[in-house]
Amino acid sequence: xxxxxxxxxxxxxDVNQNRLKESLDHIVESCVNSVGINVNTAxxxxxxxxxxxxxxxxANIVKYRAENGPFATRxxxxxxxxxxxxxxxxxxxxxxxxxSKNPLDNTAVHPERYALVEQMxxxxxxxxxxxxxxxxxxxxxxxxxxxxxxTGLPTLxxxxxxxxxxxxxxxxxxxxxxxxxNVRKIGxxxxxxxxxxxxxxxxxxxxxxxxxxxxxxxIHISQLSDKYVSSPSELVSIGQRxxxxxxxxxxxxxxxxxxxxxxxxx
Length: 266
Known about the structure:
The protein is an alpha/beta fold and 266 residues long. It contains eight helices and seven strands. The strands form two sheets. It has a five-stranded mixed β-barrel with strand order 3-4-5-7-6. Strands 1-2 form a two-stranded parallel sheet. A hairpin with a 4-residue loop joins strand 6 (241-250) and strand 7. The radius of gyration is 25 Å and the shape is elongated. The protein starts with 16 loop residues before the first helix and ends in a 7-residue tail after the last strand. The model has no long low-confidence stretch (mean pLDDT 89).
């Protein structure tokens, strides 16, 4: 879906539309390029966010995939119409092929560095596949001997980190929020009840909290602190786990008012 349609933050039409699109496109592109995507399952929309791939080339990749089956190697991407050398150079490192015969195709290692990795493997009497499975071998590699004008130590270090855990996800593990098992619906709540929740939306007037049921609770900006708060984002962030207290319930309208004043967050 269009990123601006995701229900996070203020009402989307309250802000400048061009700036909103530019900002969201930048964030999505940054996330996609940091994590990487499976070129054989990614949608046209997702592919279009990869560096070097625009809407037209993304559509061509999906069409080629539909007509010829899944990509077997990264190099096969060069068969896609309008995939030139420059576009391939920009996008190849972000596209993953989990079932490729070459294990490097499922890593962030760029094809330009494949020969270097193969040389590293030969120098420790192994093949690339074994290199990705044996951390002891990786630690035997003396990176200094591979430094050149084109490849510095930071690049070599990144390659080793990627080989230690092929296809690793750079995102941190998300700690799950423990909800109250006795609270399944709004009718289970009572005023004064303390609950654990997760911040899932921040607006100018307050913070919406997921309590583990259909309705979200709202912490009005005035209930975030005894001190003046100019913006809720000064105190909380999206995804943050917090403890709250119920101060009002409107069952008919499905509204829950919360506070964090006087509620221990430990």
